[in-house]
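Progress against Task 2.4 (sequence-to-structure conversion) is shown through the following example record, which the project officer requested during the mid-term review.
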Amino acid sequence: MPIRKDADGRYHAEACVDRRRLHRRLPAGSTASDAKRVEAELTRALHTQRRAGGVTIPGDPLLLELLNDYTERHALTLRSPDTAQFHGYRIGRWLEGKRASETREVAAAIVDDLTGQYAPATINRSLGALKKALRMGWERNKTTTDYSSLVKRLPENNARTTTLSIDQVDALASHASESVRAAIWISLFTGCRRGEILAMQPADIARDTITIQAGNTKTMRTRTVPIIAPVRPWLKHLPLPLNFEGLKSGFARARVAAGMPDVNFHDLRRSCGTLLIQRGVELHVVSKLLGHTSTTVTERVYAHLGAKQLRTGLNVLADLHRDLHRKQKRPRRAAVSA
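Structure tokens generated for the chain above:
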């Protein structure tokens, strides 16, 4: 039947012209009238497009059309447009000939084929591009259903809890070149990211503060970081005579030479926050210093500190119990007779 209702109560509309059949499953809540309208649109599309050798299905465009709209428009507005476009291009071959209504199957195929070849976080970047492309299609009325909800990200489970002591940072810095050493200490004493440090200019350095320009931050917001005494000698090296790859390779050589092959540059920023929290600095202060959008982000990043802090709190009860035990063991004084 051209119009039917499935077990979930959702209508299906079908049309067939010259043995070419089109099918649409309507969104939940659609009526029989909606299904008849879609059936008429499918029939008209088949008739008008059969001589052209292709079919444009109303409300169900090709996924490649939506992805192209994403890569050519939205991706160019992002901070790293080339990277955003690349994540979209990576999944292009899975989208060939597929329509928006086939999103669930396409997303599953992408995950199946890329798992094992790429880290979950990398796969999620491409799934994110597909998800955004579908969302844009729905917002621009190219689809009658928001198919972006069918794209499910993989669990990444890649949270790092590696932090360094001040002695470890000193050992790491001692094996680095002068420029890399400056980047290491600036990161620890300011909590700045690698890209923020590489973008620092002498003009950003005031008497007592460093201004991190909005265009160089992850959140696209300007922030100000106080200058403390230990970081001041290293600021004379700005701007660093290094690019991203130069700092990356220089840091890699230093960590291997220092016997810390698993440490990465971002661990310095995490160590800055951890050392502050461990010494009683309030969470909202650490959040503002690191440029997090909210304390919720800070809480999530430093959740690994919770167990130690809870143990410290419970040790107060242990101290009370120990004092009680000592009192119980203390011999009682004999009663004085009248």
